[in-house]
Amino acid sequence: MTVNLYSDTQTRPTEAMRRAIAVAEVGDEQRGLDPTTRSLEQRVAELLGHEAALFLPSGTMCNEIAVKVRTRPGDEVLLDRRAGESGEGGLG
To answer: Which of 66, 60, 57 lies closest to 89 in space, CA to CA?
Structure first.
Protein backbone atom coordinates (compact mmCIF):
# COMPACT_ATOMS: atom_id res chain seq x y z
CA MET A 1 0.00 0.00 0.00
CA THR A 2 1.24 3.49 -0.82
CA VAL A 3 0.42 6.37 1.51
CA ASN A 4 0.63 9.76 -0.17
CA LEU A 5 1.20 12.44 2.48
CA TYR A 6 1.27 15.21 -0.12
CA SER A 7 -2.49 15.65 0.12
CA ASP A 8 -5.06 14.39 2.60
CA THR A 9 -7.47 13.87 -0.32
CA GLN A 10 -5.29 11.59 -2.48
CA THR A 11 -4.92 8.52 -0.25
CA ARG A 12 -7.94 6.20 -0.20
CA PRO A 13 -8.66 4.06 2.88
CA THR A 14 -8.32 0.29 2.59
CA GLU A 15 -11.16 -2.04 3.58
CA ALA A 16 -9.38 -2.72 6.91
CA MET A 17 -9.22 1.03 7.54
CA ARG A 18 -12.93 1.39 6.74
CA ARG A 19 -13.78 -1.43 9.18
CA ALA A 20 -11.66 0.19 11.92
CA ILE A 21 -13.44 3.51 11.31
CA ALA A 22 -16.84 1.82 11.44
CA VAL A 23 -16.25 0.18 14.83
CA ALA A 24 -14.22 2.94 16.49
CA GLU A 25 -15.54 4.39 19.72
CA VAL A 26 -16.31 8.05 19.08
CA GLY A 27 -17.06 11.14 21.12
CA ASP A 28 -17.11 14.92 20.80
CA GLU A 29 -13.57 15.73 19.70
CA GLN A 30 -14.12 19.47 20.22
CA ARG A 31 -14.72 18.82 23.91
CA GLY A 32 -11.85 16.35 24.27
CA LEU A 33 -14.26 13.41 24.53
CA ASP A 34 -13.17 11.36 21.50
CA PRO A 35 -11.01 8.51 22.84
CA THR A 36 -9.32 7.82 19.50
CA THR A 37 -8.28 11.43 19.01
CA ARG A 38 -7.13 11.73 22.63
CA SER A 39 -5.09 8.54 22.27
CA LEU A 40 -3.48 9.79 19.05
CA GLU A 41 -2.61 13.16 20.60
CA GLN A 42 -1.12 11.50 23.67
CA ARG A 43 0.93 9.05 21.59
CA VAL A 44 2.33 11.81 19.37
CA ALA A 45 3.16 14.00 22.39
CA GLU A 46 5.07 11.11 23.95
CA LEU A 47 6.87 10.28 20.68
CA LEU A 48 8.00 13.90 20.29
CA GLY A 49 8.77 14.46 23.95
CA HIS A 50 6.14 17.13 24.47
CA GLU A 51 3.56 17.63 27.20
CA ALA A 52 0.66 17.64 24.74
CA ALA A 53 -0.22 17.46 21.05
CA LEU A 54 -3.14 18.75 19.00
CA PHE A 55 -4.78 16.85 16.15
CA LEU A 56 -5.56 19.01 13.13
CA PRO A 57 -7.54 17.33 10.34
CA SER A 58 -5.97 19.08 7.35
CA GLY A 59 -2.72 20.54 6.14
CA THR A 60 -4.48 23.82 5.42
CA MET A 61 -5.61 24.07 9.04
CA CYS A 62 -2.08 23.29 10.26
CA ASN A 63 -0.57 25.99 8.05
CA GLU A 64 -3.22 28.55 9.02
CA ILE A 65 -2.59 28.03 12.73
CA ALA A 66 1.19 28.09 12.26
CA VAL A 67 0.96 31.50 10.55
CA LYS A 68 -1.48 32.84 13.16
CA VAL A 69 0.80 31.98 16.10
CA ARG A 70 3.83 33.54 14.39
CA THR A 71 2.23 36.78 13.19
CA ARG A 72 0.00 39.59 14.44
CA PRO A 73 -2.99 41.19 12.67
CA GLY A 74 -1.66 43.50 9.97
CA ASP A 75 1.60 41.58 9.44
CA GLU A 76 2.51 40.61 5.90
CA VAL A 77 3.69 37.14 4.95
CA LEU A 78 5.92 36.74 1.91
CA LEU A 79 5.71 33.38 0.18
CA ASP A 80 7.20 31.82 -2.89
CA ARG A 81 4.64 31.70 -5.70
CA ARG A 82 4.78 27.89 -5.50
CA ALA A 83 3.84 27.88 -1.80
CA GLY A 84 0.52 26.13 -1.19
CA GLU A 85 -0.74 28.99 0.96
CA SER A 86 -0.59 31.61 -1.76
CA GLY A 87 -3.61 30.31 -3.67
CA GLU A 88 -7.25 29.60 -2.93
CA GLY A 89 -7.91 27.97 0.41
CA GLY A 90 -4.68 29.31 1.78
CA LEU A 91 -4.15 32.13 4.23
CA GLY A 92 -7.29 33.99 3.27
So the answer is: 60
